[in-house]
Amino acid sequence: MIMKSAFKAKPLRYPESWGDFPAGEHIQHAISEVCNDFAERIFGYHFAKIGALSSCISLNNSPIRHHINYTPQLLTQSHQQPLNKKDSESYVVGHSHCLPFSENSIDGFVLANELDFAQDPHEILREVDRVITQNGYVIISGFNPLSLAGIAKYLPVKRDNVLHDARFFTSYRIKDWLQLLGFEIVEQRQVLFSTLFFQQKWKGAARLQHYLSSYLPWCSAVYVILAKKRVIPMTAIKPKKKLKPQFSAVGASARASSASRLASK
Question: What domain range includes position 104?
Fold first, then answer.
């Protein structure tokens, strides 16, 4: 099975922070909550947050102490997440489709809506697959096209906003790409039920969120996927046992004696 190309000839506008979205703070908080919960299950030495949006996600509950923020440009002080005293954090500048890490070196990844603004999301996932450790984890969030936000994307609402440039891949498509690369889908959660183009200020918003998450989870504006890399170990094939012949070869002396008996007749 071959992955259908998702390459775009023209690069998309890339958000520098969650503040570029109308409801950016609300989106960041909801995604951070799920990512932080997923990160509790990931152990190892290095955790990489790929992209500007991912680097703004705090993972305070992560047992991994070394976090790498990999962004197209260096984050400003206001966008950097404070860490505990035991934590160490690195900042690396580069593009997500070309990771400067060696193979099997990163235990966990966060791609917070990074694929939604990627020119070639397949290339990013291939790079993640190259450098992730055996049984490593990746957390991916994305905008759901089967939601109010997916519909509003095509309406003349706040046309100058970068949210209109988002790719809005379905979660089924993202999971299909991951499975083709040998990842197992561990869990998926649906968060935020709104257009994302406006802040939720009315009192009944929280109650509506709870109702929709219980009865209409498929129409959430954002999904968060946790996947685990599976590597099937290669086992040596043992040679088959040599079968004993069911007959015995006739020796030269036996053939000679038989020939002499025939000649005497």
Answer: 18-236
Is 251 inside any structural domain? no
Identify the burial level of 77 via C-beta atoms within 10 angstroms of its C-beta, where 0-12 means exposed, 13-18 middle and 19 or more buried.
exposed
Question: Does 249 reside within a domain?
Answer: no
Residue 109 belongs to a domain: yes
CATH of the domain at 193: 3.40.50.150
Which CA distances in Å does 128 have to 30, 49, 114, 121, 229? 24, 11, 12, 11, 10
* Pair 47, 59: CB distance under 8 Å: yes
Residue with tokens 């957390």, as numbered in its chain: 139
- Residue 74 maps to a domain: yes
pLDDT at 142 over 90: yes
> What would you report as the CA-atom Rg of the chain, rounded to the nearest whole angstrom?
29
pTM of the model as a whole:
0.81
Over 70: is that where the pLDDT of 208 sits?
A: no
Instruction: Report the percent of the chain where pLDDT is more than 90.
Output: 57
- Count of the separate structural domains present in the chain: 1
Report the range of poorest mean pLDDT among 10-19, 85-94, 183-192, 241-250: 241-250
CA angle 82, 124, 5 (to 5 degrees): 145
Per-residue pLDDT at 45 exceeds 60: yes
The residue to which tokens 């030269």 are assigned: 252
